[in-house]
Amino acid sequence: MGGTKYNRLLGNKYVRNYKNSLAYLSSTIKASNSKTEHYNYLQKSIIPTYHFQKSLQKLKIPKLDDTFDRYFRALKPLLSPAEYDQAKKIGKKFQNGEAIQLDKEVRELDAKNKSSNYISEPWFDMYLTARESIVLNYNPFITFAADPNPQQMNQAIRASNFLISAARFMNSLRVCKLKPEIFHLNPEKSDTVMFERLMRLLPESVSFYGAYAFNAYPLDMSQYFRLFNSTRIPRQNKDELMTDTSKNHMLVLHKGNFYTFPVFDEQNNIYKPEEIYAFFTQILSSGERAEFSLGALTAEERNSWASVRDHLEKLGNKEALNQIDTALFCIALDDCEVTDPTEMSHEFLYGDPTNRWFDKSNTIIINKNGHAAVNFEHSWGDGVAVLRFFNEVFDDTVKKEFVNTKTRPSFSRGTIENYVKKLEFNLDEKAKSSIRKAEENYRIATSRLNIKNFEQDSFGRKFAKNFGLSPDSIMQSGIQVAFYKVFKKFVATYESASTSAFKYGRTETIRPASMATKRLAEYMYNKKIDESNSAEVISLMQECSKYHNKLVKEGAMGQGFDRHLFALKYHATNRKKQPLPEFFSSHGYKFINHNILSTSTLAYPNILNGGFAPVVPDGFGIGYRILEKNLGACVSSYSLSELKEFVDALENTYDQFYDIMKKTPIKKKN
Questions:
Q1: φ, ψ for residue 332 (rounded to 5)?
Q2: 3-state class of 447 per DSSP?
Q3: Are 247 and 326 in contact (CB under 8 A)?
Q4: pTM (2 decimals)?
């Protein structure tokens, strides 16, 4: 009634105009909200991010006898017959003696612990109790490919886009709209909207089994929250990981200065692209270099750094340090203009210590030429979370270009200095002396490291598969053959396998040095390879591939031997406080854990390269990649002469592989 009377008073014409105005206003608001939501979120997944987490399988402890069988098989190609017999004798004694009780107790503890797995506590403790510097010893780097649009390789533009895309990724994660991490064995059936809608309907307690029925394997995502607002805090004897998701500010380093600014406005929306761009422009316009920068302290021996940090807090710097610790993540804007992959590897693995905070869980480093990389603290997580972040952010920056050459930095919400704030630190002479000492220690440590990159475009994954060869096996076999060419011996080799198919999974070790790779290396060293025997070499390579595939599958299922033996050692010494069993101080066990060849694969087109320092003084760190049509590696060593010889041998070996395959009329095995 009231509505009808009101219509008559105003007249139908005015009512129609009023209703039309309301409809227009409503559609405008919806469009505006839709646009804002589209900007704020990277993904709006049908399946909630952690939908599968509850029903993921628990990592199983390998059978004790299987563990020792694998241990003995891994040792055999590395030791002389006499050494091997002695190692096996000591191993059998432990296997049939003390190990039985230790294994029983580890399994009992694991059965009681429903919220974790048998290796989680020992593995976190290993990282957090390590007292050596995390620089070179733990933190790796992964370099982004250049933006396909050269105009986007401006430092401030790229920094702005990386931050916006990272904030969109984080928002999607926080509201559980980031797509769950799923390994699709049959993507035609499982990587579909129908699959997503069906999985969404399943209860979380059984969702894993639903995906499994489609030959799809959800992966653990428990590490993802540490990508943001997280830092490793130095403490005496054991560090701690802290995460504070209540904060929304960014940490930016430039010329040794520490800056913060908010990433979200009062409505919790990401600041506009031109505003983010203005923040970075403001920081880059500052020409002053910090006289004393705290960054190098994070590269110190951990107990020393813990002591200095306590002193800094007593000087009144606790709030400033908290601003660093709780920031979303860190972007380091470097002044260097290097473009050579090897020079960039040095910059991104360590670089200028005044412009780093190595304790931060996640740092994107961007140099003046716009080249960029992620350097991450390793204790909180492994490659799965970092690589997902890396790839999603890179793809988003390339597709969206929220900031481009047409964008003008603009900020009209007030004085920009009230938003972009430089952290100030109160330093006494003791603190300044500690910084000077840390910078000197850093220069000495990093000056010893040598890095060499190589790239070959003669062949890649596609070509290798024509011969029934696993691309990863090709790379690992090449490493074994090249090392034998130079050093005439076989050594402990480490390759990481993710166990993220299991709840709270971390990694297992693959041991690529096998009797198969030994036979291949010796044959290629002792024989002249030509068309008359190339088929025999291919056959040896296929044996390597077959065995390597077996090791990879076992590793991914948590069925290696390294983590199990490590858990027994940890249980004996850290929980039971008993003397170290003889087995763990034996030559065989120490030899296979002295990983002269430490390797990791980074086979993604968005990655230019990636790497890390050797894990032992006489070793090599090898970050390798094999893509569809090319391959390469970033290799590090503390011996320049050995590095040159080894990398030359690697390049020569992959050339040999290509020549052998090219001349051999062998089709892929069924």
A1: -105, 120
A2: helix
A3: yes
A4: 0.93
564 is catalytic: no
What integer best gives the mean pLDDT of the chain? 93
How far is Cα 417 from Cα 432, in angstroms, rounded to an integer? 27
What is the C-alpha to C-alpha distance for residues 415 and 417, in angstroms, rounded to an integer?
Answer: 5
Percentage above 70 pLDDT, the chain: 94
Q: Tokens representing 46?
A: 């049908």
Compute CA 377 distance to the chain's CA centroid, rounded to the nearest angstrom.
9
Q: What is the pLDDT of residue 11?
A: 37
**What span, in angstroms and rounded, lies between the C-alpha atoms of 276 and 157?**
9
Q: What is the 3-state secondary structure (H, E, C) of 136-193?
A: CCCCCEEEECCCCCHHHCCHHHHHHHHHHHHHHHHHHHHCCCCCCCEEECCHHHHCCH
Q: How do residues 347-363 score in pLDDT, each as one tens digit?
A: 999 999 999 999 999 99
Q: How far apart are the C-alpha atoms of 33 and 41, rounded to whole Å?
A: 12
Q: What is the mean pLDDT of residues 186-215?
A: 96
Reported as a single tens digit per residue, the pLDDT across 619-637 is 999 999 999 999 999 999 9
What separation in angstroms does the CA of 602 have from each of 139, 239, 494, 526, 633?
15, 29, 15, 32, 9
**Among residues 378, 548, 571, 587, which one is catalytic?**
378
**E strand intervals along 552-613:** 597-601, 607-611
Separation CA 280–CA 155 (nearest Å): 9
- What is the predicted pLDDT for the residue at 667? 57
Phi, psi of 55 (to 5 degrees): -100, 5
